[in-house]
Amino acid sequence: HNSVTILGIETSCDETSAAVVVNGTEELSNVISSQIEIHRRYGGVVPEVASRRHIENILYVIDEALEKAGKALDDIDAIAVTRGPGLVGALLVGVSAAKAIAFAKNKPLIGVHHIAGHIYANQLITEVQPPYLSLIVSGGHTELVLVKADGQYEILGQTLDDAVGEAFDKVARTLELPYPGGPQIDKLAQQGSTSIDFPRAWLEEGSLNFSFSGLKSAVLNYLNQSKQKGITIAPADVAASFQAAVVDVLVGKTKLAMEHTGMNKLIVAGGVAANSGLRQALQETAKEQDWQLHIPPILYCTDNAAMIAAAAYPLYLKDDFADMSLNATAYLPL
Ligand code: KG4
Ligand code: ZN
């Protein structure tokens, strides 16, 4: 097969990103313009503000990605864009830009599922052949997915309430840490002890689903009760104990899913895969269980467009193209 150069675009949340990737594996550029600083003052992502910022940034980000890759639009074989899930107004900016370029340059258009992007991020580091299990942990998702073949997914378990990153961000807010809270909790946890016994939601026997809202409430209750009793709390211990509870459940259920499916390859994806406690626990378990473990470097765990271009490559090979009716979808099954 000749080499296939894909321009990827990602605007599902608070990063405006464009990237050029060859054959789904070789990254020529990956430009990420983060809005974190803007949303921090509101304590979270404000959808309307995010959309406006994407509009202001998108063309510059695309130009920079092409320039860094040393490519012109004419050198690009297809335009790939995140079509969902995510903030619909934010997604629409990327989808509209991608459609405009595809139409103007008469190039194939590929709509990519954001979570498929997170899974394929790993292909930019090491190529892994399906079947494998994927643990997806982000601000919007907590899922155990069996990747049977390229583009063929079976969801084995998912969260029944909060996503794990959401739980990190909410607990961080109650500890008055800045947005996004995940990295802050991670840092704080490294100085604390896991002395507080927060609940682990295992759900019914054998369940591969997750629940984090009870844990979040338990942390809140602990903080409120300590305040009422006039007890000074150690925020680092709260962070460490909360993180330990999350990691226990994530690793425990992943182990169960690996056993159920008979898999020995695991790919971890999404923003929370940046968590040092989770990375360490997974590395230890992988060693003990003899798993082939793939956790991408932190840059490829959080939102970026190279992962979207990587996930688009198998779709390109199958001629799985979108037309000008491609739309942004806030809730989209994998
Ligand atoms: O994948 P991502 O960049 O965006 C979504 O698609 O959601 O994930 C963002 C989430 C946020 O909730 C953030 O707090 C969390 O990932 N996160 C972390 C860490 N770094 C990012 N959570 C725990 N520990 C970290 N080091
Ligand atoms: Zn994401």
Protein described:
With 334 residues, this protein is an alpha/beta fold. It folds into 2 domains: 5-121 and 301-317, Nucleotidyltransferase, domain 5; 130-295, Nucleotidyltransferase, domain 5. The protein contains 11 helices and 10 strands. The strands form 2 sheets. A 5-stranded mixed beta sheet has the order 3-2-1-4-5, with helices on both faces. The protein has a 5-stranded mixed beta sheet with strand order 8-7-6-9-10. A hairpin with a 4-residue loop joins β6 and β7 (142-149). The mean pLDDT is 96. Residues 114, 118, 138, 270, 303 line the site of zinc ion.
Estimate the helix proportion, in percent.
40-55%
Strand order, largest beta sheet: 3-2-1-4-5
Instruction: Tell me, rounded to a whole number, the average pLDDT.
Output: 96
How many beta strands in the DSSP annotation?
10
Strand residue content = 15-25%
Largest sheet: 5 strands, mixed
CATH third-tier fold name of the largest domain: Nucleotidyltransferase, domain 5
Our count of domains comes out at 2
Q: Output the radius of gyration.
A: 20 Å
Shape: globular
Binding site for Fe cation: 114, 118, 303
GO biological process, one term: tRNA threonylcarbamoyladenosine modification
Keywords: Acyltransferase, Cytoplasm, Iron, Metal-binding, Transferase, tRNA processing
GO cellular component, one term: cytoplasm
What descriptors fit this protein?
334 residues; alpha/beta; Nucleotidyltransferase, domain 5; 2 domains; five-stranded mixed β-sheet; 11 helices; 10 strands; globular; binds 5'-O-[(R)-(carboxyoxy)(hydroxy)phosphoryl]adenosine; binds zinc ion; transferase
